[in-house]
Design a protein that fits this description.
This protein is an all-alpha fold. The chain has one domain: Orthogonal Bundle (Hydantoin permease), CATH 1.10.4160.10. The chain is built from 21 helices and 2 strands. A two-stranded antiparallel ribbon has the order 1-2. α3 runs antiparallel to α12, α8 packs across α9 and α8 packs across α20. The longest helix has 43 residues.
């Protein structure tokens, strides 16, 4: 169909922008990633790591934000050059097949199901905030209302709504957090440049290793967000605008132009989420670590509100809570949009549905949009430990990163090299691969020792 971004034809091709201003007009996928990234990972995992480790683990946060980008770019590049969905690409990787699906597809399916606990924690965090703003309504009722609310926003499967909603939700809380970082310097919790330098000395104590592993898996571009980038690049139209792959100079020029546009999109997103992530960490280190406050259970929001009440004054607590709701809800919102694409794609590769049948895909998105939030709400109401739930998803995400790197390697070196990469890109790619493996192995060794 002409209007289906997953169906690529000569009709959909479009000349790419040639200057920065033109490229900026086609940004979008990175905004959705930022809405997902600037969420529970930063509000919960990053600040808790700062509370436990002080400034010592800042390097984990910086590395986490920077080193995964090249792998993300390889996924986006593969999307534009092939027009394949990510599960279709993974189903072509080497290894055993079980039924119609390769081991890679089944593994991702399993890992994403395990991350249900994390999504329950994300949803639960937003529920706790609403209960504090409006205590007359119970946690259970709020959980149901949030589940219905996010389903209502996503079930139609409209990309434009996902993109605009994501951009709207990250704006207010980003401004509030940066303002807090400025004003904390005028409180007893002010910190110096030398404190920040201590955070890049690559030295972690054993009692914060598990939290650091979770933070590495969940901050920056996490494994599921790297996978999600494929769908947003497709739905934004990058692959469709490049058109079907042809062994012609015209197609190469067009594809290269849209790849360059995608690079700008990813770079802008990296600026946004790195800035906010580091800000969260510094606030957690300065205020929470100094007080010895380690958030637990549903008290996470009360404890984290100290970041704002101690830097901006007690009168801003409700403003903080509103902002906290949007930052937590944005993760649920973007994640639901992703999961409603990923599961039908998996089902398609397993032969259960025809993913490229527009009607079947949209029906699956609608059903999942209503079902998944109710599952997440139920999981939260059963466990009611949002911190543990979110961090557990980070550990799963760290493991899934190994599979993501495996896929990126094969996309880069087994795909026909119609468009060659630069030396600087190759260096960045290998730094990304080595860093992910090194931190992952280091964390496993420390946990087992």
């Amino acid at each position: 169909m002409k209007n289906d971004p997953y169906i690529i034809s000569d009709v959909t091709s479009k000349t790419p922008p040639t200057n920065l201003l033109g490229k900026l007009k086609f940004l979008g996928p990175g905004f959705i990633l930022s809405a997902s990234i600037v969420g529970s990972g930063e509000l919960i995992a990053t600040t808790i790591l700062g509370a436990k480790a002080g400034f010592a683990a800042l390097w984990i946060i910086v590395v986490s934000c920077l080193v995964k980008v090249a792998v993300q770019l390889e996924f986006g590049k593969h999307t534009i050059l092939t027009g394949e969905t990510v599960m279709r690409a993974f189903n072509k990787l080497p290894g055993p097949r079980f039924g119609k699906g390769k081991w890679t597809v089944w593994t991702i399916f399993l890992f994403i199901i395990l991350k249900t606990i994390q999504l329950g924690g994300m949803l639960g965090g937003s529920v706790v905030v609403l209960n504090k703003l409006f205590p007359g309504i119970s946690i259970t009722v709020w959980a149901i209302l949030v589940a219905i609310g996010v389903a209502t926003l996503i079930y139609r499967g409209n990309y434009g709504i996902v993109e605009k909603g994501s951009l709207l939700m990250i704006g207010m809380f980003t401004i509030l957090t940066l303002t807090s970082l400025y004003f904390v310097q005028y409180t007893p919790f002010a910190f110096s440049i030398s404190d920040v330098f201590k955070g890049i000395q690559f030295n972690l104590s054993g009692d914060v290793i598990a939290v650091a592993i979770g933070a590495f898996g969940i901050t920056g571009v996490a494994s599921d967000e790297i996978i999600a980038y494929n769908y947003w690049c497709l739905e934004k139209g990058y692959a469709a605008y490049a058109g079907p792959r042809r062994d012609t100079d015209e197609w190469r020029a067009r594809a290269r132009g849209w790849i360059n546009t995608m690079y700008v999109d990813a770079f802008v997103a990296m600026i946004i989420y790195t800035t906010v992530t580091v800000t969260f960490y510094l606030l957690g280190s300065a205020i929470l670590h100094g007080r010895g406050d380690i958030p637990q259970g549903n008290e996470v929001i009360d404890t984290l509100s100290l970041i704002y009440t101690h830097s901006l004054g007690g009168g801003v607590e409700n403003i903080y809570l509103v902002g906290a709701f949007f930052v937590l809800f944005s993760s649920v919102y973007a994640s639901l949009a992703f999961w409603t694409r990923l599961f039908p794609d998996i089902f398609g590769q397993l032969g259960w549905i025809d993913f490229f049948n527009t009607r079947q895909r949209k029906k699956s998105i609608a059903i999942l949009a209503w079902t998944l939030p109710m599952v997440w709400a139920s999981v939260y109401l059963f466990i009611e430990l949002p911190v543990l739930m979110v961090l557990s998803g980070g550990v799963v995400g760290s493991c899934l990163l190994f599979l993501v790197v495996f896929g990126a390697y094969h996309f880069k070196y087994t795909r026909p090299q119609i468009i060659s990469s630069t030396v600087s890109y190759d260096i960045a790619f290998w730094i990304s691969v080595v860093s992910i493996f090194a931190v992952g192995v280091y964390g496993v060794v420390q946990v087992l020792s």
